Amino acid sequence: MTIREMLEAHPQPTIGDLDALARCVQACGECAAACTSCADANLGESDLQEMVRCIRSCLDCADVCEATGRVVARQTASDLGLVRAAVEACLVACRACREECERHAEHHAHCRVCAEACRRCEEACEGLLASLR
Amino acid sequence: MTIREMLEAHPQPTIGDLDALARCVQACGECAAACTSCADANLGESDLQEMVRCIRSCLDCADVCEATGRVVARQTASDLGLVRAAVEACLVACRACREECERHAEHHAHCRVCAEACRRCEEACEGLLASLR
Amino acid sequence: MTIREMLEAHPQPTIGDLDALARCVQACGECAAACTSCADANLGESDLQEMVRCIRSCLDCADVCEATGRVVARQTASDLGLVRAAVEACLVACRACREECERHAEHHAHCRVCAEACRRCEEACEGLLASLR
Amino acid sequence: MTIREMLEAHPQPTIGDLDALARCVQACGECAAACTSCADANLGESDLQEMVRCIRSCLDCADVCEATGRVVARQTASDLGLVRAAVEACLVACRACREECERHAEHHAHCRVCAEACRRCEEACEGLLASLR
After folding, report:
1. Are B37 and C77 in contact (CB < 8 Å)?
2. Which of A6, A87, B6, B132 is the most exposed place for a label (fewest CB within 10 A)?
3. What ipTM goes with this model?
4. Comparing C-alpha atoms, which of A102, A105, A93, A78 is closest to residue A32?
């Protein structure tokens, strides 16, 4: 996991547990990619009209996960208040997207895989928040 | 202002006051551009070592503003809880970045201009949050 | 225009004409916002199935415009080859998105406004490329 | 690899070889995270002044990789000309960033790891371009 090596090589003390940070950055990146792909797969489905809410959730979740992953990756002169606010927004985005994707998981495999990526990102965000306190 | 026209042309009811939404999307975009530029200008300054905290704040603020501007721009199947969490994270990012930039506003004009963009984005975020309640 | 002031305050020589740079960064930001909004407006339209290609074009164009606006905004230690490659990719994205949006401009006002934002971004990209040579 | 599963579950035919697509999306995400982290680690180094060019390269590379990863991930109504232009810009960004990071790889482990992520992303981009022709 490249991001673990990057954080280990950082010249400054990290703001939290190294594993929790690495897991969060990794999970944000994977969730963002899954959500971008799921929104796009939904656009190609025959029940497109039923997938509108899912597309919206996925687009939001991808954007919030990418921004959060960047904020969490940075360790120089960190502002813990901002890290917390960003990770909390990410939690809200992942939860909403997972719940919507779970509703379609039986008929769309991409929604099932995306819901799992959201779930892992929620857990990584919760783990990081716990390690910061 | 293009974004005002876009929101007026939207087929669905918007989640809040049209002016407050348009102002927030606009301010997020301008603040993101100012922060990207300010981080880069700091990299070219002779007192670079003193600007490290400012660069970090600007990078975070640019990322959070871009993601928030996208979430706020979307009006189809909105999740108000996510809109609020994203706008609140944006407020935290803009406040931290403005406070840091204000400390350098006298000797770096780009920090003064960037602090003003952050201030406008804070006001736009607060205005939107008030209109959502 | 905030970005013009930011570039004027930059401590390093800029890579091209100041007006051309400012116009490009500004146009990329406005085009990205218009495309994000147009993709979302299309999701709320009753002829959704006919708008799939337009949504895809808008999502791509928003992403490429945002990245390009950031690369162009930076003036410290620039790599002209990368600036050119990014601006050229942006031109391709804006042209494709404008052509698709123009096909729907008569029945969807958001597509008309978005096509205009793409057109301005194409012109700003072409203007910048010309000023770099 | 989540993204491989997502692409397999896509309802539309993909624009290229599934492995080449998945590898490119994956490599873009990892390179973006490594570059974001490397730029930040450089900000915390004692030889900060010597790392300015590296920070700039990393910031650009992160932005271009993220946008490219999104364009490549999408498979509905693709525009091959845009995919090519984005992947080519990504190649330019990764090559420039790798070359700069390699110059510092002996004294900064994060630059060594980042250079490796850039190298993998270059290879994935080249592999995808070859599979598209």
Report:
1. no
2. B132
3. 0.97
4. A93
